[in-house]
Automatic annotation (TrEMBL), chain A:
It comes from Acetobacter lambici. The gene is sdhC. Belongs to the cytochrome b560 family. CDD domains: SQR_TypeC_SdhC. This is Succinate dehydrogenase cytochrome b556 subunit. The chain crosses the membrane at residues 44-63, 84-105, 125-145. It comes from the Bacteria. Its main location: membrane. PANTHER family: SUCCINATE DEHYDROGENASE CYTOCHROME B560 SUBUNIT, SUCCINATE DEHYDROGENASE CYTOCHROME B560 SUBUNIT, MITOCHONDRIAL.
UniProtKB/TrEMBL annotation, chain B:
This is Succinate dehydrogenase hydrophobic membrane anchor subunit. It is a multi-pass membrane protein. It comes from the Bacteria. The gene is sdhD. It is found in: Membrane.
Length: 157, 137
């Protein structure tokens, strides 16, 4: 045995003889659990949140560059597809935040028993759905109101 | 029970591994960096969501006026730096877990360069916004 990782899987029994300890079975042999979906979702939403943050920086860069660039950026954010992307980014950030708070709680040594984990999982899904929906609807409504108010005042945006 | 009895040729004990930082020689610092930046992002991103209520549907002049205020510029720059730092640390873990072999190093460098550049771009955009609002354009 030359590989260090493999060698570290070797354990000894109480009578002193060496045995190979079992390694994790492959993913597909596990029964479906919500916690496994929530776990990988935290990573996926982290990646999406980063991509969204990059878009946010481009938006800020457009505002810094000038009114012309910002008008282009507003065309993107005002577009239905652009709005969908924004809502997706928002939901990802909300879930990643909820998942992150759970991680911090676990790191502090709480809510890490099997029963507690299984109880908190659906709560995390509910909180994410609720907060995302409320924020998305409210933000789109505020933006829409401001736009139409300006249009009524006859100001060119 | 295994049919063949394993035989170790590596001179390394479990205790030695636990004491001697393991193969990577580090890790605790990275773990802390991830947690501290995550905790810092909680108030910063909450602030950003509140600001988005003020800015949703705003035109260019309003955004420039908003970004030019010292407190907003400071919070925005802090948010951008912390976000891309946290992204760098987090994406590194994902790359370490899923990208193996020859692709590993280039992918990690790409993550490092990409997140650093995005962070820099964001900070310079904030500086430009401040400059823009002070000249009144």
């Amino acid at each position: 045995m030359q590989d260090i990782r493999k060698a570290l899987y070797v354990g000894s029994r109480s009578d002193g003889t060496l045995i190979e300890r079992p390694m994790s079975p492959h993913l597909q042999v596990y029964r479906y659990r919500l916690s496994m979906v929530l776990s990988i979702s935290n990573r996926i939403t982290g990646v999406i949140a980063t991509a969204g943050a990059a878009l946010g920086v481009f938006w800020l860069g457009a505002a810094a560059k000038g009114p012309k660039s910002f008008a282009t950026a507003r065309k993107v954010t005002g577009n239905p597809l652009g709005k969908l992307v924004l809502v997706g980014w928002l939901a990802s950030v909300v879930y990643h935040t909820v998942g992150g708070i759970r991680h911090l709680i676990w790191d502090a040594g709480y809510r890490y028993d099997k029963e507690e984990l299984n109880k908190d999982g659906p709560v995390a899904v509910g909180v994410t759905a609720g907060v995302s929906t409320v924020l998305a609807v409210a933000l789109l409504a505020v933006a829409g109101c401001r736009r139409s108010k300006r249009a009524k005042a006859g100001k060119v945006s | 029970m295994n049919a063949s009895v394993p035989h170790i040729e590596v001179m390394r004990s479990q205790l030695g591994r636990a004491r001697g930082l393991g193969a990577g020689h580090s890790g605790v610092g990275h773990w802390w960096a991830e947690r501290v930046s995550a905790a810092s992002l909680l108030p910063l991103s909450t602030w950003f969501v509140v600001q988005m209520f003020r800015l949703g549907g705003a035109d260019h002049a309003e955004v420039v006026k908003w970004g030019g205020k010292p407190v907003n510029a400071t919070m925005l720059a802090a948010l951008i730096i912390t976000t891309f730092y946290h992204a760098q640390v987090g994406l590194q873990v994902i790359v370490d877990d899923y990208v193996h072999g020859k692709a590993h190093l280039p992918t990690r460098l790409l993550i490092k360069i990409g997140t650093s550049l995005m962070g820099l771009l964001g900070v310079f955009a904030v500086i430009k916004l401040v400059a823009r609002s002070s000249t009144g354009k």
